[in-house]
């Protein structure tokens, strides 16, 4: 060692490298894992609320073009346009339930009233007599009804149905209230979101964001056009064949048509089964009619409307709806197509131009 050099002592007093504190590393790692697990559990617990917020925000963004149209054409203030849209939504829900509940109650009451006569008629048929001889259906049914826990099971089933109805009404009311608040504060939400972006990129982000909002609104408008057209066609056909519940079934067909991919099929099956209860032949004719119309809607009407609305190819629409439905169910299927439209817009206006400049 030269006279001018100085030896530096290590913190542990030795000359080798300092050993890491494995206990501290393990403790910090375990704390991070615990924090992540608690965050995941919190998100899972609040999943329903997050879905309500997401659906309400989607509806608010989608209905914003309608509000802006009322402001520009009818010269309404924003609060007046929002109130008009909300009253229209509430009126539609009232009319929908008003047309659904009385026929459903009538059918259930008629079924319960005619059940003894129906069972007596079934007992006199050779087919039912053969089943009774082989499987003792009446004895098994009597044993099920006279079982000690039958009342408890029946009450539990009724409570479960009532809970489902209550949860559905609560979810609908919550989404409507959240949609109202989001529609009222949407310009402020968008402005704050744009201000989070650096000033140099703010104009471009604002342009893309406004286009995404416009496309979501166009998607909802296109979906409503397709659903309304399906409901009108269903009403005209059901009225032509003399169905007593033409308006009710047409509203069911129109509402279910809002569900991507499978909505029209669900509405067609419900309408066909309802018609078949009165006349099996007319029920079969109804099913054939809706199958033909579904092909026209799927390959002619919907692709043109949706391509004009969101500018996304049908292949991407179908793929997005399937993936969204697999991840989040019905809500995911509804949100998947506008999400795909937004991602397509970002790819075309941001990602691809940057790749071309390299």
Automatic annotation (TrEMBL):
Superkingdom classification of source: Bacteria
Keywords, comma-separated and alphabetical: Cell membrane, Membrane, Transmembrane, Transmembrane helix, Transport
Subcellular location(s) per record: Cell membrane
Membrane topology, record value: Multi-pass membrane protein
Transport listed as a keyword: yes
Keyword Ribosomal protein: no
Transmembrane segments: 21-43, 49-67, 79-101, 169-197, 218-238, 244-262, 269-296, 316-347
Pfam families hit by this protein: AI-2E_transport
Family as reported in the entry's similarity comment: Belongs to the autoinducer-2 exporter (AI-2E) (TC 2.A.86) family.
Record's protein name: AI-2E family transporter
Organism the protein comes from: Nocardiopsis codii
